[in-house]
Amino acid sequence: MTRAKVALTAVAVLSVGCAVYRGGELGVVPEYAAAPVPVPQPSISVVLAVRILVNDRVQDLKREVFPNLERPVVKAYEDSGYFERVVAGLEPSDLRAEVRVTEGFLSRPSAVQFSGLTLLLLPHFREVEISSRTTFVDAAGRPLGTIEKAETVHYFNQLFAIAIGRLSGQYRTEDKTYADLQRATVVEAAQRGWLQVGDPAKRTGPGSVSFRSP
Amino acid sequence: MGPRLTHAAIAALLFVACHPVIYIPMGSELGDGTQARCQLARDAWLAPVKIEDPNVADRDHLEPALTLDLQRFLREERSFRRVSLLPGEPAPEDLILRFAFPRFEQSLIQCPGCNAWTVISMGMSANNMESWELHSKLGGRLRVERLTGEEIATSSLERSEDEATGRGVWRSPGPPSAIGLRAGLVRQLVYDACHAFPIGSAE
After folding, report:
1. pLDDT by residue (tens digit) across A156-201?
2. Do B174 and A137 make contact, defined as CB atoms within 8 angstroms?
3. DSSP A121-161
4. DSSP, res B94
5. Candidates A14, A89, A141; nearest CB to B84
6. How many domains is chain B built from?
7. Which residue of A112, B149, B175, B182 lies most exposed, with the fewest beta carbons within 10 A?
8. Could you tell me the CATH number of the domain that includes residue B119?
9. B150 domain residue, yes or no
């Protein structure tokens, strides 16, 4: 085998990658400053459960991954500046955010197999739909309301997609989307007045109503 | 191994690495709830779940996640009129549910050559996962209390399961998991406690 063939093979193999782009369902995520809370609230506890779907089938989540999924959620509440104290878990607090995240991985087995047989010369697609459903609860355990946010991340797998995938840093798209969902949730809760502890007049909706992003 | 096969193997390795992770089942997922066989027309408050198994290392993460999953599951089962989480302020007539898991063991065993074969065959072989086997042992306890702490009903149960899958990655419903075992255990604990309940229980 000539050196040129080896080099060509190496380039081809190392060029396998995914181009990643967001579906845009979430829209522009406002900054925390867009919905300032007049006085930082005393405390909020954040509790998280994660559901994994692979082609619509429920799977178990590897526990080691959990802290990586919990950290951005807690950070979204900390970064907001809306609270004096943010704690993870079911702790006594003035407010509680019950966050249920679903990550749905979707790929078409036949397309993947066909693409694989051509060693990815023919591309295939896969998607990850990340959704977050957060119920805000007051200190007495009464639900204030629920906010749902979702966005799909699309992956385009192809032999030479490395240049627009791995090299451009798009592989962090999924993490950024996840963090954006949480920020959008916190900002919307602030806009709805649900983070004003002890001031029900500032709340804009009955507790049982759910609001879903378009 | 010839150069072509080597190239194919390397490409397959990268190809597989670009796909959804096959999760090792060690979580809190309970699956979807169904209509419970025994329902109580009472509001219930779920206390934070306790994992008492000393072999479970990351309880700080697992217990709250399991509590939240359990709340969703019980709501879907409609075992109670309403299920809220503690801390909170239950009414005097409300029920307090305390779940504890003295045993929460799971181990996944895979044949040594299985990973290599999965990579070489790009996940398309029917035999890829047949050597994956999950051993699960679960022990659970449910104590139903009044707000005063007085016990109303209790139930405890232990179950184990060995599960293996023998289908290819893409055709398989996924790696083996103890989701069904956990859901079955919780369902039975609630059913047993419901039947031990002095008043208001109904099939």
Report:
1. 777 666 556 555 556 678 889 999 999 999 999 999 989 877 554 4
2. no
3. SS-EEEEEEEEEEEEEEETTS-EEEEEEEEEEEEEEEETTT
4. -
5. A141
6. 1
7. B149
8. 3.40.50
9. yes
